Amino acid sequence: MDHKSPMLNDLFGIPWLDFNLSTSLMTIVSAVIVFFICFFATRNLQMKPKGFQNFMEWIVDFVRGIVSDTMDWKTGKVFLPLGLTLLVYIFISNMLGIMTVVVVDDYLWWKSPTSDAVVTLTLSATIVVLTHYYGVKVKGVKEYVKDYFRPVPFIFPFKIIEEFTNTMTLGLRLFGNIFAKEILLSLIIKLAFVATPVTFLAVIPMMAWQGFGLFIGAIQAFIFTMLTMVYMSHKVSSDH
What we know:
Blueprint lengths: L6 E2 L10 E2 H22 L9 H19 L2 H4 L3 H20 L2 E3 L2 E4 L6 H23 L1 H6 L9 H37 L3 H41 L4
C-alpha cells in the first residue's frame, strides 16, 4: 500500500477492484462544491444580474465563446452545459490542493483530485466516448464512418491512433501540471518545518507558488475545456 495513497483493496471480493480513498473523497468534495456554487448563483435569478449571478453569467458567456470559436453555434449550443460543467469542476478540483493539505497517519487525504492520473484519464476517456456518441447522433452512422476515410482511405489507421493519443494527451496534460504543482508545494511546506528561520523564509516562495498554482489551475481548466470542444467539433461539424 502506498503510504501517500490510502487504498481500499479487494473491494466486494474482487481482487482488481481497488479505490484510492483520498481521491474518491476529493472527487466527491469537488462535485459538492460545484453544486453549491451553481445553486447559490441561480436560486434568486434576476433580469438585471448582480453579485454572484453576474459572475456566473460571465462564466457562461466565456464558455459560449469557447464553443463558438470551435464550431458553428447552431451545432455547438447543445455542448454549452458540458463545457460549463468541465470548466467549473476542473478549476475547483485544481484549486483544492492549493488551499491546504491534510495528512493523517502519513496519508494525504486533502489534495486536488486532478493530481491523480486515474481521474484525469477517466475524464478524457469519457470526453472521447462522448465525441463518438454525438458524432453518430449528428451525422448518422454511415456519414460518421466515412469521415475516417477522408480525404484519402489510407489515413484510416492514423485516425484510429489519433483517438488513443487524444485520450492520453488530454488526460496526462492535466495530471502532469497539477501533480507537479502539488509536489513542489509539498516540498516548500516541508522546508517550512525544518527550522524557525527557514519557516519565515519559506512563506514568500509558498505564497508565490500558490499564486502561480492558481494561474496553472485556471489555464489547465481552460485548455481541457477548449480541447474538448475542438475534439467534439471534429466529430459533429461537416467542415472538418
